[in-house]
Each structure stands twice: as C-alpha cells, then as structure tokens.
Amino acid sequence: MTDKAKLLIIDDEEIVLDSCLQILAGGDYEIATANNGESGLKMLPDFLPDLIFVDLKMPGISGFEVLNKVHEFDPTIVTIVITGFATVSSAVDAMKEGAFDFLPKPFTPDELRLITRRGLEKRKLELETIALRREREMMREHFAAIVSHELKSPLNAVQQNLFVLEDELSTQLSDEQKGKFERAKSRISDLMKLIHTWLRVIKADIDEIQTTFQPNRVEPLITKAIENVENQAVRKNIEISTSIKEPLNMVNGDEGTLVEALVNIIGNAVKYSPMGSQVLITAESEDDEIIISVADSGVGIPKEDLPYIFNDFYIAGSAPKESRGSGLGLALTRRIIEAHYGSVSVDSEPGKGSTFIICLPAVSISSSQ
Amino acid sequence: MESKTKILIIDDDPDYVEGIKSILEKADYEVEAVYNPEDGFNTLKSGHYDLLLLDIMMGRGAEGVMVARKISKDPVLRETPTLIITGIREQIAYLFPGQPMHPHFLPVDELIEKPVEPDLLLEKVSTLLRLAEERKAESGTE
C-alpha cells in the first residue's frame, strides 16, 4: 500500500466524527465520514476504504447490517465497531459478524490511534496474503502451460516424423520392422500421456479428474497396469501373478490416472525385486471398499524412510542407485488415489519386501443400477 | 492445366513441420512453411494460398492466436480455410476457459492435435478445402 490508507468513519454523532478527524489528522490517512449507514455504504465503491469504523447504534440501518453489507462488498476490508453501550455482548456479536475489533465510547486519542494502526496492519496482511496466493496460483498454472509446451513439442516432432516414415516405408518394411515402429510410437505416446498426468497433478486442481469419474471394473485396470510393466518384468525374469476375489465391486474414477497409480506401484515392486522373484497382486471387496495390494520380496523400506515415501521428490536411502527414479511416482500415486477418495499405505520389512495397499471406495451395487 | 493446391504452414518447430510437410507433398499439395508468426502473416498476405495450417502455441505463448485474430480482421484473408494445430487440447481450454473446445477463429477452420496421423491430416485438409469451396459457391450465387 503505497497510497495513503483510507479510513471511513460511520457514526450519527457529529461530535464523534469531528473528534476522530482531529485525533487522526496527524496520521498519514485519507479520511471520509458518513453520518448514517446508508450513505456510508454508498461511498464504498468509489472510496474503497481499507478500514471502516462503524457505530453499532444509529438511526436507519443498524451497525450490524452495515457490517454485513461491507463484508459482502469486500471481505478484506477491516471493520471496527464503535459501541456506545459497551456491553460485552454487542461487541461479541459484532466480532461474530466479522468485525476485527471494537472501540468502546468514550475512548482516548491514543486508543483510537492504536486501534487504527492495528486495523491497518491487519488489512495489509490480508492484502499481502491474497496477492501471494494469487501469485502462487498463477505460477503454478503458468508453469504447467510452459512445461506442457516445452516437453511436448519435441515429442510431437519425433512422433510426427515417425508417422511419416512409417507411412512412406510401409510397402518396404518387414513385419518385424513394423513392430519396431509400433513400439517406438507407443512408447512416445505413453510418455506424452505421462506428461499429461504430471501436469494434471502439478496444476492446482487435480480434482479436475473428478468431473469425468465413471464406474470402472477393477480387473481391467490391473491388467492394463501389468501390461505397462511387463517388459521390465520379463527382463528381470519376475513373475507377476494376480489373485482377484470375485465378486468385486466397481470403483468410481478416472481410468487413465488409476492405471497410472497402479503402474507406479507395480513398477516399483518390479524395480526393487531381485531377479527371478515374484510380485503378487491381490484385489478384494471389503465392506464398502476395494482393497488392492501389491506385494514384492524386494529390498524393502527402512522404518525411518516410511513416513516420507509418499512425499514429492523423496527417494529412500535404501533404494539402489541404479534404479532410483524421479521421486515423484509415489507422490503422484498418493494424490491420484486421494482424488479418488481412497488411501494408499505400505507395510515393509528391510530385506524381506514391501506390500503396498490401495483402498478405494466401491460403487455400491444398488447405487450403480 | 490447373495448378497445384497451395498450402502455407506457420509453425515455429521446423522438425515438426518437416513431418507434416512431407505428408502433404506426397498427397500432391504445394507446401510452403514459415517458422514465426510475423513472417507467417506477411507471407500469407503477400501470396495466394488455398489453405493455412496454423500452430497456436508459438513463441512465448499463444502467438498463433494473434495471427488468427489478425487474419480474421482482413476481409480477404479471413476466407482462407485454416487448420489450427495445437500441442494439447488442454492449452485451448487453458487459453479460453469455459469455451467450447473448438474456438472458431475464422469462418472455415478446424482444430487438430499434434501429432497427427497422416490419414487424418489429409482428411481434415480436404474437408476444409471442400467447405471453403462450398462457401465460395454459396456467396457467388447470391
């Protein structure tokens, strides 16, 4: 606030207005006065005060009503009530209506100066908080837009050229070579989807995915997720087995991100498991929930790391250096699951393995019909 | 003999342009490309093109939108059928919150997402050319 702070004083007693003006005259304020609620409220849009003093008891509309209207107009304007009948109850009522403080009549000049300063400090903080919050939102959105452009542009160019090459060579390629094109194209498209998912998480509103929720069968989600990590598993000769207890209710959600969450967890299980071991995925209904567990016999997670593994960019010290990731996978997973009103937890014993457990609310049979 | 259909591409990513250019050339279109919005608009103005491919996200933001706005203000150029290319659909939603996914910048335009399958690109291009042809015929008979 580089401009002078603006004060509005609303009181029906001329003498109060005059003495306020005199007392505050030395301060660096711009002061306006009104002798009833209606004319005070009318001044709001043009004067845009930072701080308003309101007498509670006035002819015409009451101080309480003025408070309400002021807060409707702009909730960041700081209001202080002047009360002639300094009963605690009316002051408390006013505070309940959102007044910042109260000033009982009669008051000394110092009391008025002090309460004015405090009120303006409060206003300054309010405005700063709002500005910071807005800035943070903008940075987030801006970041998402830039990142999406910068990350996706090169991929777009690669993919576009692959499309063309494949098209131009289509008559000359062997099936095996066509397969290689398919593989390259599908990996790039996976990567683009991944960028999309990350962006959705970075953007302020991951809850956006909730607008397109629909009932999903759990088994295909698991199957799709397994397909995504199959290559990794084959390379390490790890067997991924599933045990699904039917009947299994559906889950309400977004297929893409749910698969993403499962890929992260199953992918970790494969990554941290020894060659030739097994990863077991189970799914069952329990009360109103679907419980999906992913168990591995890998390196496990030390107790001291457990509380942090779902945080952004956290990489446990026990993770083998060659298989460390971005530290975003589990954070992302947690956010996805929480956006689905579910939870994710882990049981782990170093050297023996980890079991990740995802709980998701089930679509009840009756409501899904 | 009728000359080839001329297409102008305005997109700031030469590698990407290389990809779509050869699809179009293979389909016997004559293709020119310009890699920044200003030169793109000037080129469009100075020559005659049957169709425009316009990238929305250029430079430090949605500079393609500016180009589209400039084109729409020109009574002659605005009749150019235009295929608007966007990196991701979300960018459109981000730029124009609350608007339908296909923001009609020009009388004959269409939206397409990067990367685009060759067949889809050719289909969109020929549809736009046909629509523009029909529009021209309609205004001619009035």
Would you mind describing this structure in some detail?
The complex is a heterodimer of chains A (369) and B (142). Helices cover 48% and strands 19% of the residues of chain A. Chain A is α/β, with parallel strands linked by helices. Chain A folds into three domains: 5-107, Rossmann fold (3-Layer(aba) Sandwich), CATH 3.40.50.2300; 140-204; 210-361, Histidine kinase-like ATPase, C-terminal domain (Heat Shock Protein 90, 2-Layer Sandwich). In chain A, the strands form three sheets. A five-stranded parallel sheet of chain A has the order 2-1-3-4-5, sandwiched between helices. In chain A, strands 7-9-10-12-11 form a five-stranded mixed sheet, covered by helices on one side. In chain A, helix 2 runs parallel beside helix 3, helix 7 (218-235) runs parallel beside helix 8 and helix 8 packs antiparallel against helix 9. With 142 residues, chain B is an alpha/beta fold. Chain B has helices spanning 14-26, 37-46, 63-73, 89-95, 118-141; strands at residues 6-10, 30-34, 51-55, 82-86, 109-113. In chain B, helix 4 (89-95) links the parallel strand 4 and strand 5. The longest helix of chain B is centred in the C-terminal third of the chain and has 24 residues, at 118-141. Chain B is globular, with a radius of gyration of 14 Å. Chain B starts with 5 loop residues before the first strand and ends with a helix. Chains A and B meet through helix 5 of A and helix 1 and helix 4 of B.
Would you identify the CATH architecture of chain B? 3-Layer(aba) Sandwich
Overall mean confidence score, pLDDT of chain B: 84
* Multimeric status of the protein: heterodimer
Which structural class do you get from the secondary structure elements of chain B? alpha/beta
How many discrete structural domains of chain A? 3
Strand order of the largest sheet of chain A: 2-1-3-4-5
CATH superfamily of the largest domain in chain A: Histidine kinase-like ATPase, C-terminal domain
What would the CATH topology of chain B be?
Rossmann fold
- CATH class label of the largest domain in chain A: Alpha Beta
Q: Greatest chain-chain interface?
A: A-B, 20 and 20 residues
The Cα radius of gyration of chain A reads 32 Å
Mean pLDDT of chain A, to the nearest integer, reads 85
Assign the CATH class of chain B.
Alpha Beta
